[in-house]
Specification:
Helix content is 50%, strand content 11%. The chain is α/β, with parallel strands linked by helices and 369 residues long. It has two domains: 13-157, Rossmann fold (3-Layer(aba) Sandwich); 162-368, Dehydroquinate synthase-like, alpha domain (Up-down Bundle), CATH 1.20.1090.10. Bound molecules: nicotinamide-adenine-dinucleotide.
């Protein structure tokens, strides 16, 4: 066990439970907020309107324009609207796109953000923002963008299609996997990561079997909360770096890319992260090969397993390798161009992760600094 650590608790409130969104007005009152701008994606316009109506006099407007990766023009429109309406806070309802838009406003105007997440992506638990301009996404950490309060209401996730639920849940699992071998991990974060992984691995098959199973939806959301908290508390490594690169350079879909890459990234790091492997083995019911278990889980959920299924061409691999090794970052196993190339070829084909060179050529650790 890693027994030298720093842990900084993030200052936010979390309310959890089916039907919790009914208490959103009380929550705004508690925080002294009176003029909310409600944000959502165009597809969640109905939910955004419902929330805006339910808030009554506490709402000053609704903007249903959130898009993946927070395009700068959308962020600027949202910031202008918040100023014009004299909003004193934003309520973001939806997935990482809606919450990301609220963060973009908070970053510029310091407006407090209240999040009502309806996917499992985890942005609501982090002080990390992102903004995209001219095809490049910039990200950063800033305490101002951390939501003041998060309301998790599993009833709002029932409408999330089961195929999106599956990949969104594995996106959450990726935060836990990398949190378990993060350079700044700590015992409390590792407990959250292990329990979050257990909850998601248990709940996702039931969510996919019946998207209206509120018990399964609650357990999946509980796991997503824990995994999001891990993301907010630690530094991510190879897996997140690769997914960020694949999303930025090739515009591959966010959660699906995480789903495909995760088993291979874990297989790559496995030999250098024994504590993480042991925790994941416990979380996944005693498996001796958590990378293979993740690959099996994705298959059993009907999720895509190869990058080629997401529209990536094999000829893109060298460019992604070059971008992925361009600057150093913390990772338990040394990141080499040939290692990443083998990983990406295996992930592109979608073959079992431990049948490939990803696992077999594992070298002993040499963390990049
Ligand atoms: P998203 O918010 O775009 O949602 C994915 C899809 O699900 C969308 O089509 C959306 O309309 C739909 N959807 C959401 N909730 C629904 C519901 N209840 N019912 C029906 N459909 C619903 O994507 P996401 O995967 O939640 O988030 C991805 C984005 O968030 C990316 O831009 C990613 O970079 C960012 N992100 C940021 C952080 C961070 O810490 N800053 C963490 C995770 C993700």
């Amino acid at each position: 066990m890693h027994l030298a650590f720093n842990y900084q608790a993030l200052p936010m409130r979390v309310s959890f439970g089916a039907g919790t969104v009914a208490k959103l007005g009380e929550e705004l009152d508690l925080l002294g907020l009176r003029r909310a701008l409600v944000l959502c994606s165009p597809e969640q316009d109905d939910l955004g309107s419902y929330i805006a109506d339910a808030l009554g006099a506490l709402t000053v407007g609704l903007l249903a324009e959130a898009r993946m990766h927070v395009p700068r023009d959308v962020a600027e429109r949202a910031r202008d609207l918040a100023s014009r309406l004299g909003a004193d806070c934003c309520v973001a309802v939806g997935g990482g796109s809606a919450i990301g838009l609220g963060k973009a406003i908070a970053l510029e105007h310091g407006l407090p953000l209240v999040a009502v997440p309806t996917t499992y992506a985890g942005s609501e638990m982090t002080p990390v923002w992102g903004l995209t301009e001219n095809g490049r996404k910039r990200t950063g950490r800033d305490a101002r963008v951390l939501p003041r309060s998060v309301l998790y209401d599993a009833e709002l996730t029932v409408s999330l299609p089961t195929d999106i639920s599956a990949v969104s849940g594995i996106n959450a699992l990726a935060h836990a996997v990398e949190g378990l071998y993060a350079p700044d991990r700590s015992p409390i974060v590792s407990l959250m990561a292990e329990e979050g992984s257990r909850a998601l691995a248990s709940a996702l098959p039931r969510v996919v079997a019946d998207g209206h199973d509120l018990t399964a939806r609650s357990e999946a959301q509980y796991g997503a909360w824990l995994c999001g908290a891990v993301l907010g508390a630690t530094t991510m490594s190879l897996h997140h770096k690769l997914c960020h690169t694949l999303g930025g350079a090739l515009d591959l879909p966010h959660a699906q890319t995480h789903t495909v890459v995760l088993p291979y990234a874990l297989a790559y790091n496995a030999s250098a992260a024994p504590e993480a492997l042991a925790a994941l083995s416990r979380a996944f019911g005693g498996t001796d090969d958590p990378a293979q278990t993740l690959w099996d889980l994705a298959g059993s959920l009907g999720a895509p397993r190869g990058l080629r299924d997401l529209g990536m061409s094999e000829t893109d691999i060298p460019r992604v390798v070059a971008l992925a090794v361009e600057s150093p970052y913390a990772n338990p196993r040394e990141v080499t161009a040939e290692g990443i190339e083998a990983l990406l070829f295996a992930a592109w084909r979608g073959e079992p992760p431990t049948d490939t060179q990803v696992g077999r050529t594992a070298r002993m650790p040499g963390p990049l600094r």
